[in-house]
Amino acid sequence: MDGKAVAARVRAEVKAEVDRLKLEHGLTPGLAVVRVGEDPASKVYVNGKKKAAEEVGFRSWELHPDEGITQAALLELIHQLNADPAVHGILVQLPLPRHIDPDVIISAVKPEKDVDGFHPLNAGNLLLGRSTTRACTPYGVMRLLEEIGCDPAGKRAVVVGRSNIVGKPMALMLLQKNATVTICHSKSDLRREVEGADILVVAVGVAELVKGAWIKPGAVVIDVGMNRKPDGKLVGDVEFAASAERASFITPVPGGVGPMTIAMLMRNTLDAAVRYGLVPVVK
Ligand code: NDP
């Protein structure tokens, strides 16, 4: 499954809608990305997001306070972005320095501008099956499934990993599409669960944890993991070559889910701009 190609298609769809919004409504979606400190991986991710935002025609801002910023000062920054009508989406790149509580910061972002879908209100709406802003990575996985014509209804879906940003929302989105969902974590009998999966989504962060021999023949395998090996090579959480021999579809790492995450962030920002940017601001 070529995530890069699907992601390019999503970005092209977003760009076409941005062009129309500008022309018909004079509205340019705006995305503000907050990156605290000098985490090298965060810098790479944020650069990718900024580049994509520019390509689809958004206004974008990177706010880059230094590592030592206090939680109170960071909250003040978030409040300013919340109040700025040119900003439709706010993304706070994780991880944050240890002295800052990410839950406090995530909860401070206005839910309407929470384009990561991490705010408790958006996460709660997903749980309740309501329409809401969806976490970008699982949202991207759902789009990949759609692209290959994989309808989760009635299938056994196994999600490995229960984080709030990938595993849990992934399981809820699959459930909403009527899959029979199992969530695995560090205490699960992993092999037994994986062997029964028609759709397998792995988001753990352990290189090649899931073995090719465990994959059910014909399964759809989505590998969210991104792990750097000592030789510098990037690999997923699934043994790729051996799994590809058994799976009907499998995402590579890199070039699978990663580009979809950024593309769905563009989608979420556009949707936030349409939903709230077109509504007259009540002062
Ligand atoms: P977390 O570390 O927050 O969660 C990892 C999960 O994996 C936990 O639920 C943990 O279980 C579970 N786990 C750990 N070891 C095992 C094991 N041996 N067997 C089964 N489950 C296990 O990670 P994230 O969800 O944030 O990220 C997961 C991976 O996805 C990482 O590699 C990350 O880099 C990547 N990622 C990729 C993105 C992309 O765009 N491609 C976006 C986001 C993440 P427990 O809860 O019991 O501890």
From TrEMBL:
Q: Which InterPro entries match?
A: Aminoacid_DH-like_N_sf (IPR046346), NAD(P)-bd_dom_sf (IPR036291), THF_DH/CycHdrlase (IPR000672), THF_DH/CycHdrlase_cat_dom (IPR020630), THF_DH/CycHdrlase_CS (IPR020867), THF_DH/CycHdrlase_NAD-bd_dom (IPR020631)
The segment(s) forming the Tetrahydrofolate dehydrogenase/cyclohydrolase catalytic domain are 1-116
**Catalytic reaction list:** (6R)-5,10-methylene-5,6,7,8-tetrahydrofolate + NADP(+) = (6R)-5,10-methenyltetrahydrofolate + NADPH; (6R)-5,10-methenyltetrahydrofolate + H2O = (6R)-10-formyltetrahydrofolate + H(+)
Q: Copy the pathway line from the protein's UniProt record.
A: One-carbon metabolism; tetrahydrofolate interconversion
Its EC number(s): 1.5.1.5, 3.5.4.9
Q: Could you confirm whether the keyword NADP appears in this record?
A: yes
NADP keyword on record: yes
Task: State the function annotated in the UniProt record.
Answer: Catalyzes the oxidation of 5,10-methylenetetrahydrofolate to 5,10-methenyltetrahydrofolate and then the hydrolysis of 5,10-methenyltetrahydrofolate to 10-formyltetrahydrofolate.
Family from the record? Belongs to the tetrahydrofolate dehydrogenase/cyclohydrolase family.
Name of this protein: Bifunctional protein FolD
Organism source for this protein?
Myxococcus virescens
